[in-house]
Amino acid sequence: MLYVGLDLSRKRLDWQALDCEGERVGIGAVPPDRDALGGLGQRLGDRPVLAVIESMSGARFVHDQLELAGWDVRIADAVKARGLAPLACKTDRIDCWVLAELARLNLIPEIWLPDPQVRAERERARFRLHLVKHRSALKNRVHAILFQHGIANPHRDLFGAGGRYLLTRLELPEPWASTVQASLALIDTLDEQINGCERELRRLGADHPYIPLLTTLPGVAWVLGYTIASEIGDIHRFPSARKLIGYTGLTPRVEQSGERDRRGPLRKNGPDYLRWALIEAAHTAGRNPRYQPIVERMRARHGRKRGSKIAAIEIGRRLTEAIWHMLTHDRPFAPAGAPTPLAA
After folding, report:
1. What is the pLDDT of residue 265?
2. Which of 41, 71, 104 is the C-terminal boundary of a domain?
3. What angle (nearest 5°) sits at the alpha carbon of residue 270, between those of residues 268 and 276?
4. With a threshold of 0.70, does the pTM exceed it?
């Protein structure tokens, strides 16, 4: 068995191979492209290889290509790897050696790698959100131009039929008039693309085992349900609801040592898109009679603006706990006290 540490950068992949005794048997660097990785996979012969690479952009591509060459490739949590092996001197060659040693000593802080199907689901949901963010930025720009020129907006939706009629009759100076026209054209294009994404998500989500359950949760419709399902992946990799809540990053930082006990802001680890979906659902669920007392209590304690944000985080944690029970036991949402309680 050979143990290989891999250090990836934009233009090259450094590698170092150790044997079972920790002796170096190979070292080098190759471009991180398909052909070079295929050659590296054949370079060490027929001996079994356990390779480790830190989690970063491009690590999954390296993982897939070397797996095709017969290697067993693990992706390590970069933060935990540095915690296990802090370095006084850090170079690409030393990083490779550290990762190879962690593999040899069976100390890899491995992260879960989603399969191609889950990756495709995530990409579809994330690309839709990416388009929505661009559309919102364009709409905000149009609103700002009207405000800068003292033009009131009497319509609830500036980009509906009445609002569009108002925008076509505006007499703005250049270059603001051209900016509004270009923004409206881009908004129309993005609307078309977003509608296409949503039709595809609805079609694919019809056969997903998690989405019909998630849409029974307060504040979750099928778009958020698809996003949450794709970001969670396999629910059985979380042994408890507490583990899933920790994965969302909606838990505060806690540092304790002796008599010192420090509580900080949210950890915000885990997928950003999952945390966003849960907070979006929490804001809507806050109007549900079950969760509305939480919002009222937090607003009374912290003020309306800050209290609403804190309440959304608390409700998001409770929704996450309910999601774990729902998906683990394959049952729809039922509030506490119901015949089949699934929420804390």
Report:
1. 86
2. 104
3. 70
4. yes
